[in-house]
Every structure is written in structure tokens, then in C-alpha cells.
């Protein structure tokens, strides 16, 4: 971590592992706030984005041509799963570095595995690690009970500096913030929330206006696409919240957020 | 006969003893929802969904379940087959789009486009030429369009191609976000690609692929980490950070900056 120290104030800048996803577009309000006020980090983000743009431009020269060297379905699946032995992985990496077609298959498999309807069925792709024991309680209790639980589980708000400091104390995982949808929106196909440092697992729950659980998912990402099986109606209230798993295996929950949408999902 | 090794995959037992229909019943019961979930992510029209589902079933049952047997022989038996299955679904869906009923979808998409975009669609999505190659072909056939104007038309064509699902876009590399000031000269892009490739060559292959998958192909860092055997997404971020710094330094030494493109 880079640190800048002055006599009056010690400022801790975001680490690379925070700056990189932020520079590449991941929503992160805390980092955004820090970067906006910090010339050094702002310049660093600009440099990262400039290098990213340079790297992406040659993609317009690529073609997806099948060759005899292209990887078969099992090899690609084993690579995506990280199941290849080092001696088998090396030639696969070498091929993927030169083959846009096979990389497209890898990317597509990764994308499909986190699609709501697939992830819930795949199991191993986005494992549901915890929370099953509680799920029986959440469904009948509804929104009111969920709100009560949030008060219990949500860590006490400490008046700490929110100017983008990284490396918070290990025991005070902050709650993620629901970003979209909120209030009245045109459409609501994806749920997006802020990332929380040191958190690798989020849990999202969607309720209807009567407090019934419609859908839930656990994911390492900071967004989730609603599966086609979740049928929402326009101009009706829905609620959602997102929780971040703390290092003590508890959950830091956001507030319940209400939204309505005006255009029926296709 | 290859003996399926999966523990907990009930369809493997009848497949092993040659009872194909029982194996299929158990397999499809177990994975029907996953298959439909994946297909609905790729195509949205109900008829298309059912067409692709039929193609997927046919592809899995073909040649006495040879695909499932190969899967059993080569996939780590300790892991779920869902990843392999989505790869198969994706490939069979593309096969449907290119060679079977999906071709009418492609034709319908193209027919609805203005003439210039129809040509772009033909070159990029049907003939699968690179964007730059498509531009050069257009110019050679008399189209008077600057490269920047071409990129705008290309972007609009991509947007049209995703109407009705993402499958058509699967045929081609994603269009990179070139920002408000896209490259004005395709020849310069080609020259700079060589310098960028040389800069990437200085990285270990795994890190190079991490950069490619996460930065260029925009694959989630968690999945890049899993594929490459990194402990977590944070490792991807740190490797990418170092890689971007190294690449940038090398490009600066070569006198290249982002605004030069």
C-alpha cells in the first residue's frame, strides 16, 4: 500500500486492488470520493485507464478463426474451473494468448455461469456457502422481519473517516450500498451495489411489496442479473437489499431499498 | 466404453451399463433448468429458445451420447459438470445460429439495417472479419467513410445485433469502448499493436493472460482468478496493476500515449 504522510494528517490511499477495478468501471462510491479529492490517485486512475484503452484498441484487429489447435470443450471447462494441472495449463495459456476464438468461449462460459438461472442450478460455479439454515426463516418473515434482522446484523455505524481510507479494522466490515434500481426506474433487469473492501461474497434478496421473498443469490460480483424466472410487474413496489459477508462469517446488510419500474421486462 | 466416474451424477450409472434412455431421463431431469437458463441468456424469442433446446438435446444425444462420454473421460470428476455443459450449450447454440434455423434470425437482423450497416454486418458477423478488415473492404468497394465514422456505424450495428438476445454478439469479439476520441487511422492501430504485443511479451504467460481476460475481454476478476489458480480476485488486481504499469512504461519509451491513437 502506498502511504503519504504529513505532519498534520496521515492519508492512506487506495491499494492497487481497489484502484484497478475502480479504474476499469466497477462502482465503488468510497473510492470515487477519495479519487475526486486526491490529485495523486486521480492521476493514477487516469494512467490506468489510458493503459487500458491502449490495450483494448487492438481488439478491432481480431478475428475468431477456428484452427486445429483450438481447445476442446472439456479442456476449456477444466481451464475455467481452474482444474488443469500446471503442466496441462501452460500450453492452454499459450494458446489462449493467441486465439480470440477460444478466449471468447472462456469468456462466454464465465458469463453464463453467473447468469441467475444458471448459477442457481450450477451450484459449483457460484457456491452457496452459507445461509441455507436461515433461508427457511426468511421466507415467511418477510420484509418487516428482514428489516429487524438488518438492525441486529448490521454493524454499528462508527463515525470513521469516509474519505476513501482503505484497510479498515478487520472487525468492522461496512455494509454495501444498493446503487440501482432505486425509487422509480424505467427498467430493472440488474441489481447493482457498491463493493466493500476485503469482501468476497455478497448476498442479495429481492422481495415483493407484501414481503415475500422472490429471489436470492450469493455472488462474488457487485451486480446480479435477474433471471427470466423472476416475473416482476411494472408500477408495483419491490424491495431489495444486499449483504456483505464479514470476516467473522456474519453479514453486514444494506438498508432495504424500494423501487418500481415502468417498462415490463422483455 | 469409457466409464463415467462422477460421484453423485445419477445419470452416469445407466450410461455405464448402456441404458441410454434411462441415463438421458436422469440427465435431462437434473440439468433441464440449467440448460434453459443458459439458452434464455443467449436468445429471448420463445421459438428460438425451443429450437436451441432441441439442438442442444440432439447434440448431447448424438452418436450414443459421445459428448457425455467424452465429458466423463476428461472432466475432473470431483467437480460439477455445469461448466462443461454451458460450454457445450454455447457452442451448440452458435452452431444453430450459423448453420441451422438461426440463420433466418441473422438474415432478418441484417435486412432491417441501413445499407452501410448491412455491409458491416455481413463482413463482421457473417464472414467474421476483423473490424479493420471490414473497414478496408468497404473502402475498396467505394464507400466514402472515415475510420471514425465507420466505428460509429460499427457500434450501432453491434447494438442492433444484440436485439433478441446475446447470441449473435457471441459470433464476434466484443467491440472495445474506444472512448470519445477513437483511433482515426487503422494502419497506426496495427503498428501500435506490435509494440503493445512486445510490451506484453515481457510478462509471464499467466499474467499476460490475466491482463487479456480481465482488461481486454472484461471477464470478472473472480473467474480469472479461478481459471489461473490465483488465490482471489485481489491477486488479479495486483498482477494487472503491475502489468499495466510495465506496459505503460514500455509504451512511453516507444513514444505512445493513449491520446496518440
Give a short account of the largest sheet of chain B.
none
Coarse morphology of chain B: flat
End-to-end span of chain A in angstroms? 45 Å
Task: List the total number of helices of chain B.
Answer: 12
Please count the helical segments of chain A. Answer: 8
The biggest beta sheet of chain A reads:
6 strands, mixed
Strand content of chain A: 15-25%
Mean pLDDT of chain A: 73
Radius of gyration of chain A: 21 Å
Uncertain residue segments of chain A: 1-8, 124-171
Which structural class should the secondary elements of chain B be placed in?
A: mainly alpha
The quaternary structure here is heterodimer
Shape of chain A: globular
**Through-space gap between termini of chain B:** 56 Å
- Specify the helix fraction band of chain B: 55-70%
General description of the model:
- The complex is a heterodimer of chains A (266) and B (261).
- Chain A is α+β, with helices and mostly antiparallel strands.
- In chain A, 37% of the residues lie in helices and 18% in strands.
- Chain A is built from 8 helices and 11 strands.
- In chain A, a hairpin with a 5-residue loop joins strand 9 (238-245) and strand 10 (251-253).
- In chain A, helix 2 (29-37) packs across helix 3 (39-56).
- Chain A is globular, with a radius of gyration of 21 Å.
- Chain B is mainly alpha-helical.
- Chain B is 69% helix and 0% strand.
- Chain B has 12 helices and no strands.
- The radius of gyration of chain B is 22 Å and the shape is flat.
- Classes of the chains: A alpha+beta (266), B mainly alpha (261).
- At the A-B interface, helix 1, helix 3, helix 4, helix 5 and helix 6 of A face helix 2, helix 3, helix 4, helix 7 and helix 9 of B.
Amino acid at each position: 500500500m502506498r502511504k503519504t504522510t504529513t505532519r498534520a494528517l496521515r492519508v492512506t490511499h487506495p491499494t492497487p486492488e481497489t484502484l484497478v477495478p475502480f479504474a476499469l468501471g466497477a462502482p465503488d462510491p468510497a473510492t470515487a470520493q477519495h479519487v475526486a479529492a486526491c490529485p495523486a490517485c486521480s492521476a493514477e486512475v487516469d494512467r490506468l485507464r489510458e493503459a487500458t484503452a491502449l490495450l483494448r484498441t487492438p481488439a478491432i484487429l481480431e478475428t475468431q478463426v477456428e484452427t486445429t489447435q483450438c481447445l476442446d470443450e472439456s479442456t476449456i471447462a477444466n481451464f475455467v474451473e481452474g482444474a488443469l494441472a500446471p503442466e496441462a495449463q501452460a500450453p492452454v495459456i499459450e494458446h489462449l494468448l493467441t486465439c480470440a476464438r477460444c478466449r471468447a468461449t472462456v469468456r462466454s462460459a464465465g458469463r453464463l455461469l453467473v447468469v441467475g438461472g444458471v448459477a442457481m442450478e450450477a451450484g459449483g460455479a457460484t457456491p452457496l456457502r452459507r445461509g441455507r439454515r436461515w433461508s427457511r426463516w426468511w421466507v415467511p418473515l418477510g420484509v418487516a422481519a428482514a428489516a429487524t434482522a438488518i438492525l441486529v446484523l448490521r454493524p454499528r455505524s462508527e463515525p470513521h473517516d469516509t474519505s476513501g481510507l482503505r484497510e479498515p479494522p478487520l472487525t468492522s466490515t461496512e455494509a454495501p450500498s444498493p446503487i440501482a434500481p432505486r425509487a422509480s426506474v424505467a427498467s430493472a433487469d440488474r441489481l447493482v451495489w457498491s463493493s466493500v473492501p476485503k469482501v468476497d461474497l455478497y448476498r442479495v434478496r429481492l422481495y415483493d411489496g407484501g414481503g415475500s421473498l422472490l429471489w436470492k443469490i450469493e455472488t462474488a460480483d457487485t451486480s446480479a442479473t435477474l433471471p427470466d424466472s423472476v416475473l416482476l410487474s411494472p408500477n408495483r413496489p419491490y424491495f431489495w437489499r444486499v449483504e456483505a459477508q464479514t470476516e467473522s462469517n456474519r453479514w453486514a446488510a444494506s438498508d432495504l431499498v424500494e423501487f418500481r419500474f415502468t417498462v415490463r421486462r422483455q | 466404453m469409457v466409464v463415467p466416474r462422477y460421484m453423485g451424477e445419477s445419470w452416469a450409472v445407466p450410461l455405464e451399463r448402456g441404458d441410454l434412455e434411462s441415463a438421458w431421463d436422469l440427465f435431462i431431469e437434473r440439468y433441464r433448468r440449467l440448460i434453459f437458463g443458459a439458452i434464455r441468456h443467449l436468445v429471448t424469442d420463445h421459438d428460438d429458445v425451443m429450437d436451441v433446446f432441441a439442438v442442444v438435446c440432439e447434440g448431447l444425444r448424438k452418436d450414443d451420447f459421445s459428448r457425455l462420454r467424452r465429458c466423463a473421460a476428461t472432466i475432473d470428476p470431483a467437480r460439477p459438470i455445469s461448466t462443461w455443459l454451458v460450454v457445450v450449450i454455447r457452442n451448440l447454440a452458435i452452431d444453430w445460429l450459423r448453420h441451422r434455423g438461426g440463420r433466418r434470425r441473422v438474415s432478418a437482423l441484417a435486412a432491417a439495417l441501413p445499407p452501410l450497416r448491412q455491409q458491416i454486418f455481413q463482413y463482421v458477423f457473417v464472414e467474421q472479419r476483423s473490424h479493420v478488415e471490414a473497414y478496408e473492404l468497404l473502402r475498396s468497394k467505394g464507400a466514402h467513410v472515415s475510420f471514425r465514422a465507420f466505428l460509429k456505424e460499427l457500434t450501432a450495428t453491434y447494438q442492433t445485433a444484440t436485439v433478441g438476445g446475446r447470441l449473435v454478439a457471441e459470433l464476434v469479439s466484443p467491440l472495445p469502448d474506444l472512448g470519445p476520441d477513437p483511433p482515426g487511422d487503422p494502419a497506426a492501430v496495427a503498428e501500435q499493436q506490435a509494440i503493445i504485443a512486445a510490451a506484453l511479451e515481457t510478462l509471464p504467460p499467466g499474467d499476460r493472460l490475466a491482463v487479456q481476460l480481465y482488461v481486454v475481454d472484461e471477464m470478472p476478476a473472480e473467474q480469472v482468478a479461478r481459471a489461473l489458480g490465483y488465490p482471489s480476485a485481489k491477486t488479479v488486481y495486483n498482477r494487472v496493476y503491475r502489468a499495466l504499469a510495465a506496459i505503460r512504461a514500455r509504451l512511453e519509451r516507444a513514444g505512445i500515449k493513449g491520446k496518440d491513437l
